[in-house]
Design goal:
Bound molecules: pyridoxal-5'-phosphate
Strand order of the largest sheet: 4-10-9-8-7-5-6
Number of strands: 17
Number of domains: 2
Low-confidence stretches: 1-18, 431-437
Mean pLDDT: 93
Helix content: 25-40%
Number of helices: 15
Strand content: 15-25%
Length: 437
Amino acid sequence: MTSNGEQMPDIATDPRPVDFSGDLAKYREDFPILSRSVSSGEPLIFLDNAASTQRPRAVIDAISHCYEHYYANVHRGIHTLSEESTQRYEQARATVADFVHAASPKEIVFCAGTTAAINTVARSWGDANIGAGDVILLTIAEHHANIVPWHQLAERTGCKVEFIPLGEDHTIADEQVAEALARWQPKLFSFVATSNVLGTEFPVERWVALARQHNATVLVDAAQAAPHEKVDVQAWDADFVVFSGHKICGPGGIGVLYGKEQQLESMPPFLGGGAMIHRVTTSGYEPAGLPEKFEAGTPPIADAIGLEAAINYVSDIGLERIAAHERALCQVADSGLRGIDGVRVIGPTPELKGGIVSFVIDGVHSHDIAHQLDTAGIAVRAGHHCTMPLHKALGLNSTTRASFYLYNTIDEVHQLIESVRELRAKFAPSGRRRRRR
Ligand SMILES: Cc1ncc(COP(=O)(O)O)c(C=O)c1O
């Protein structure tokens, strides 16, 4: 039995990730990097996907093809390459719009990533709508990308940033959210859809509906959700939804700011320069329409095309299948790690979380754990994962995080569990067993 009283799976024979079993080897072949070895010749076991996933050949090829065949700056040239580049760049936007079920491609702004998207909202919507004494409401589970821009807004405007604490089970109950909204009457409620540490998946639609009862504007950080579950911005009904390309098999340096058309229309541009204007005179400027208004300068053209290829790749496999596969891996990892004396899994039980398992080993620093696992070829992340307030609330300085994606196998999970078991035994020899919390 695990510490939760659950039946431990037989990790040698557990058949649960059957959904992928026929195709997994094929998918793995799509990712050239997975065939390399690390450390002293160990096959790579890449379990750092919440930080960045790897790229399939289809994405690498789409980017190379762009640079080899049609790259030119968009929206500016009256020549063949520029027209082709523009057409493909806008096609990528349309694909993203379909992917998140936006009402129109105008609602899709390409930017550098989740961080850039949230900063854009804080600078543009925030500066225009927030004043002294107003409240921005967050959860304690936010990534620094969804905390610091609001602290900066508070520095500029005198607004307050308040946090909803974590519930006992490492989730946050709807009642807590309702109470916080009633208490703080925030102008903005900005929250993460899936925690990058706990793995907890929060009920986006329900929380947006609660926020609406208090007329709060809502931003959803979908950085860890978009790679694994269907993001339907119309069903979610948030004003803003943001995510990064590199966590969904796409290139680094591109991300998405979705905003409701009305909302984006009403916002002033944040960055000024070329491409975002309709007209410039010596006395002023007139901004372009959507979405160009928010895309000053030369955009990440090949990256947008790479992101489109990534979206097509994961969509062809099916987000539901990917999520089911990860959930199965997560369940085995979670139960296996909870079953090791001296190991604590941080986060709720597997049915409440996506493909993320964070843990601590009593008496062993997370950096040492990650280093030791690396010698076995296993890449995990160690540290505070850009969530210092969450770690403080948990009473921890750092955690070790294993995070799964579509190409991970059950064997890799078994190897993680075995390596952690060995590591624990090495650092806590028999006779010096520590108390299990
Ligand atoms: C939940 C969450 N939000 C925001 C970010 C920031 O994403 P990026 O670094 O791509 O801007 C991350 C990255 O790990 C994340 O996990």
